[in-house]
Amino acid sequence: MNTDARVQAQQYYQSAGRDMAADLEALRQHPQGVVLMMPQLVALMKPVVSTAPATWQELALPTPGADAWYVHLLVGNLALARQLAVALPPLRWLCFQRGLRSPRPHRLAWSAFCPQPPTNHH
To answer: What is the pTM of this model?
Structure first.
C-alpha cells in the first residue's frame, strides 16, 4: 500500500468512479473551500449547513448560514488533520460521508474533532 496520501486519494477517486480534477476545481472556486494536498494528508472541505446533506457535495457553491465543515475527502494522517484544523474558523459541526463504505451523512461536534488550544489561567 502506498503511504502517500495524494496517491491514496487518486486511488479512491478511481475506485469510486469520480472526477478528482472536477472536485478540486469546484473547491478552488468556493470562497471558503479548503484544498490541502500533502504527502502526509489530503483534505478537501467546505462550510455547509449541517441539516442539509443534499447540498454538501455542491462544492463550488457558497453556503449562507453554514454551521459545519463538510469533509469531502480526508486521507492520511488524522492527527495532523486535527492539528491543522485549529487554523480554520470554528463552526459547530463536522459533517462527512464515508464514501464507498457508507454514503449515509454523519455529523460530529467540531469540538470532538478539533483540539482546543490550551487556555492560560493567570
So the answer is: 0.86
> What is the number of residues in the chain?
122
42-86 tens-digit pLDDT: 999 999 999 999 999 899 999 899 999 999 999 999 999 999 999
Q: Which three cell numbers stand for residue 38?
A: 500533502
Beta-bridged to residue 71, according to DSSP, are 45, 96
Spatial CA neighbour of 93 closest among 62, 37, 32, 52: 52
Q: Are 95 and 71 in contact (CB under 8 A)?
A: yes
Contact 89, 5 (CB under 8 A): no
Closest CA to 10 of 18, 81, 80: 18
Q: Using DSSP, state whether 59 is helix, strand or coil.
A: coil
- Name the nearest CA neighbour of 44 among 60, 55, 29, 33: 33
Beta bridge partners of 76: 41
Grid coordinates given for 4: 502517500
pLDDT tens per residue, range 89-115: 989 999 998 765 566 788 989 988 886
